Amino acid sequence: MQRQKPKGPGKPGSRFKPGSGTFKGAGGGRKSGDNSQKRPRQEINKSRLAATEAEIQDLKTKYAEIDATAIKKFAQFPLSKKTQKALAESKFVHPTQVQRDSIGPALQGKDVLGAAITGSGKTLAFLIPVLEHLFMNKWSRTDGVGAIIISPTRELAYQIFETLKKVGKHHDFSAGLIIGGKNLKFERTRMDQCNILICTPGRLLQHMDENPLFNTSTMEMLVLDEADRCLDMGFQKTLNSIIENFPPVRQTLLFSATQTNTVQDLARLNLKDPVYVGYGGATPREEPSASTKKTPNTAVLAVPELLQQSYVVLNLEDKITMLWSFIKNHLKQKIIVFVASCKQAKYLYEIFCKLRPGSPLLALYGTLHQDRRIAIYEDFLRKSHVVMFSTDVASRGLDFPAVNWVVQLDCPEDVSQYIHRAGRSARNKTRGECLLVLTPSEEEYMISALKEQLNIDIRCVQIDPKKLFSPRVKIEAFLAQFPELRATAQRAFLSYIKSVFLMRNKRLFNVFSLDLDAFAQSLGLAVTPRVPFLEKFLWRQKQLQQQKEQGDNAKSINPLLSKLTKQQSFGGGDEDEENSDDEDFIKVKRKDHDVEGEPVKLDEEDDTENEAEAPLVVPKREKLVTKASLAKKALKKNLQVNSKLKFDDEGETMADDRSQMKALSARQRTVNQDDDDGGINLVLSKALLTEEDQYDKQRFRELVKKRHKLQREKLRKKAEEAKGSDDEEEQQDDDNADDAGSESDHSVDLSWLPDPDKVYKNKPNASDRNESKSESSDASDDEKADDSDGDDDDVSDDEPAYKKSKLTNKMTLMDTEAIAASLLGS
Ligand SMILES: Nc1ncnc2c1ncn2[C@@H]1O[C@H](COP(=O)(O)OP(=O)(O)OP(=O)(O)O)[C@@H](O)[C@H]1O
Q1: Do 277 and 102 touch, CB atoms closer than 8 A?
Q2: 103-141: per-residue pLDDT in tens?
Q3: pLDDT tens-digit map of 144-190
């Protein structure tokens, strides 16, 4: 059954080929397109047109006779000459099982749900029908988008695009790769000229929302690769919005190695009497109830025959040692190591680069820039022996040739994820091996699930301890040397804990069974980082417990429980989002971690009859701005403290005697700045400050003594001079009187000052007494000066004491004497 193509302008004139590169829409085939556009339609070779028309009619008649069981070669399929030629050139001669079974119905215009083991050639199974559909309908560039292929990951979309370039090279269609991380404007202007779009869901929806030139009303074919992933909760909203924009009448093809679609999923896609390929009689069923939801409705659960599977049981803290030893023993092999989070992949890559195992290393994960991701993907394709640390971004669909080993270092979320990861090896009838690493708490559940659902007994491997080499000491040394590496290790630690915490299957993943200290040490961390989300969870649990014990608000326990588990499964809800800096860097994009089965057991007796009434309000704690937190921020920003420079009269810089007085240990510490561990060592800082304080006090005492001595000498000199000559004294008195009179006009009246002669005649030993007094009261002076004279260093030692007294508004006897002496002297 062929659908009628909408009449578009310019048909069948301009044709475009998919070209190379990340976006090849109109650009890829512009050359030939421009030529053909220049030619008037009438000039197109009529015989060629007639031949194409005849070919189409011929093929149409053969569609009804397709017998999948009789087909041994692609040539036996009623395919266009252009497709046949490209298939032959790419050495695709014999169709695989899934291709044999699905191409026929797809050519006939039926909806297809295809499921087949990894590496069995599903990509061609949908690309050939797409090309043929457009060919049969004489599609041209001006007809707009004819087919949209959706893939859950960018790398997979890129790979499909590359395969399309191979099998569609003799056709004149234009194709575009629409994935995130690329130039949106560039895509925007060319999308309407593409006949086949290969996209990721998010980017496609963005164009639908923002691009007025993008029109999907002409679209006739929809393909979902890795359909179960596209339809699961992570993409649910996006996909629903996308589907709303599609014309309701269309052909839909769904393919995956693990089809877990329910009838409800298929209803969302408007499937009409779909043909099931590879389901072995099973068909999608009704949405399972909450109780049965744990077992996915998986139609195909099989791994390639030539894949050897084994598993090993290790404590979490031994994983790095095992991995290091494994890599050292498989230096000439192509290995993918799957971990749970981007930060772990990043850390393992960085630390192993430093450790230099002797094999090239790569890391592929979602937070890398798109161009880098593609470069790493291609690098891994090319290299014959290499180790790639990866998240599940590479677990689905990617067709890496000759991968010898897949190591699942962190336990997969479920059996279907295990299959997809393992399927990166032993592809297309080649050999490969898969090693699953489990912790003791994961072993029982995972192995029995694999046995139940895959019907296989995975071999358990015992590791010979003699073959294990621990890189722990080296790792610790590197972490001590490179603070940024230590920060990466801390993030890796937290992200693994968070990933376990968020897993929906609490029987498989129990965060409380982990030995956090040992795990932190295995990553090379001397101090176990705080885990704020766990602390918060435990704090709430405690609150709950207290409430329960008090017996009041018994009815609010169940709603709280569900709230807690919801927050646990969705990354903490609103409150978590606005939470501390510590948690900011952990963002969980997938939202399909609905808590199923048993959540973390908050309380054995919680499954009681208690009904939801008043939800418990967890008080919001305001975050205090402490000095420590400010200092932490400053440290993070790597701010430099201002330094003080003193200049002499010539403008030369003078040595700052303050810094010279620094405590010995402080100076040593400044010299050895490389030892700085980037944090605040309170004990050490306190000791340094105490030491510095002693220096400061001692220096201050010396300054006070010096100043007093100077004052005494001055006073003594003046007194001797005063005694020496009466005439001079009289003269001086006159002068002083004149001066006083002349100054009194514009200065202060000093007549109230005591007569220094009287004072000194009566107390000849006053200065001596002062001396002994000042010396004995050094300590108390210190204390006084501490309060009033804090900036003593900046006051010149020659400065008259009365100036200081004025400043402090305190007039002591000493001050009075000093003023008088200075007046006498002037
Ligand atoms: N008919 C064929 N003859 C020879 N090689 C083929 C054929 N079909 C596909 N291949 C090759 O098999 C490999 C796997 O194909 P493909 O990536 O389509 O598998 P898949 O089923 O989509 O795998 P996954 O489930 O992992 O996505 C590719 O290298 C492809 O070129």
Answers
A1: yes
A2: 999 999 999 988 888 888 999 999 999 999 999 999 988
A3: 899 999 999 999 999 999 999 999 999 999 999 999 877 777 888 78
Q: For the whole prediction, is pTM greater than 0.90?
A: no
Question: What is the DSSP annotation of 110-179?
Answer: --EEEE--TTS-HHHHHHHHHHHHHHHTT--GGG---EEEE-SSHHHHHHHHHHHHHHTTTS---EEEE-
From start to end of 561-682, where are the E strands? 646-647, 653-654
Q: Are 231 and 194 in contact (CB under 8 A)?
A: no
Asked if 46-277 and 307-521 have one fold, the answer is yes
pLDDT digits (tens, 9 = 90+) for 244-280: 889 989 999 999 887 665 656 676 788 888 898 876 5
For residue 362, the tally of other CB atoms under 10 A from its CB is 18
* Ligand 1 atom at minimal distance to the Cα of residue 98: 21
b (16+ CB within 10 A) / e for 33-42? beebeeeeee
Fold of 46-277: Rossmann fold (3.40.50)
Ligand 1 proximity of 95 Cβ (cutoff 6 Å) = yes
Share of the chain above pLDDT 90, in %: 38
Q: CB neighbours (10 Å) of residue 575?
A: 11
- Does the CB atom of residue 572 touch ligand 1 within 6 A? no
Nearest atom in ligand 1 to the alpha carbon of residue 428 is 12
Whether this model's ipTM surpasses 0.90 comes out as yes
Backbone dihedral region for residue 426 (phi beyond 0: left; psi -120 to 50: alpha; all else: beta): left
Tokens of 531: 């885990």
Beta-carbon contacts of 574 under 8 Å, excluding residues fewer than 6 positions away, are none
Non-local (6+) Cβ contacts of 9 within 8 A are 142
Among 176-190, 310-324, 794-808, the range with the most confident prediction by mean pLDDT is: 310-324
Domain borders along the chain are: 46-277, 307-521
- Ligand 1 centroid – CA 163 distance (Å): 10
Q: What phi and psi values does residue 461 have, to the nearest 5 degrees?
A: -110, 135
Domain made up of 307-521: CATH architecture = 3-Layer(aba) Sandwich (3.40)
DSSP labels, 279-322 = STT----SPPPTTTTTS---S-----TTEEEEEEE--GGGHHHH
Query: 203 C-alpha vs ligand 1 centroid, how far in Å?
Result: 26
Q: Whose CA is nearest to atom 20 of ligand 1?
A: 119
- The C-alpha R_g of the chain, in whole angstroms, comes to 41
